[in-house]
């Protein structure tokens, strides 16, 4: 009798708390004297900008509304936008990638087990978009391979199939 009472009482208490939290969160609360968070941010913005590279604009907070403003942060990625085409490959591989600063770039073809099949490119490159066109030798068997692009400490791996 005692366990059943405790169990039933616990469930009733849990449901009552859930209903209370649901109603409490649905009531809009308007801040007195304006939005203090946006006031604080505007006051901080008037001072010296501590991070000159980051220009963030945070919209004022309004209860029960959804913001559609996107905050874009600058990227510190060295290697990006790696594309391998055409896929599947028959006789030539085309590779396009973007480097943000001078770096040593190594591009290798790797099999499924991680063994290096061939080195397509290994050199220092200037920043900007780079395009590599290489023919694939007929000695390589048909199947699935990976292209590993390494720039500095960053690495991007793309899967290709060779016909």
What does this structure look like?
- The chain folds into 2 domains: 1-73, no CATH class; 79-162, Immunoglobulin-like (Sandwich), CATH 2.60.40.
- The strands form 2 sheets. A 4-stranded antiparallel sheet has the order 4-3-6-7, with no helix packed on it. Strands 1-2-5 form a 3-stranded antiparallel sheet, with no helix packed on it.
- It has helices spanning 2-26, 36-46, and strands at residues 79-85, 92-99, 103-110, 116-125, 128-135, 143-151, 154-162.
- Residues 44-49 have low confidence and may be disordered.
- The chain is α+β, with helices and mostly antiparallel strands.
- 22% of the residues lie in helices and 36% in strands.
- 7% of the residues are buried.
Q: Note the main sheet.
A: 4 strands, antiparallel
Query: Alpha-carbon distance between the termini?
Result: 73 Å
The assigned structural class equals alpha+beta
* Beta-strand percentage range: 35-45%
Question: Approximately how much helix is present in the residues?
Answer: 10-25%
Rg from C-alpha positions?
Answer: 29 Å
Individual helix count = 2
CATH class category label of the largest domain: Mainly Beta
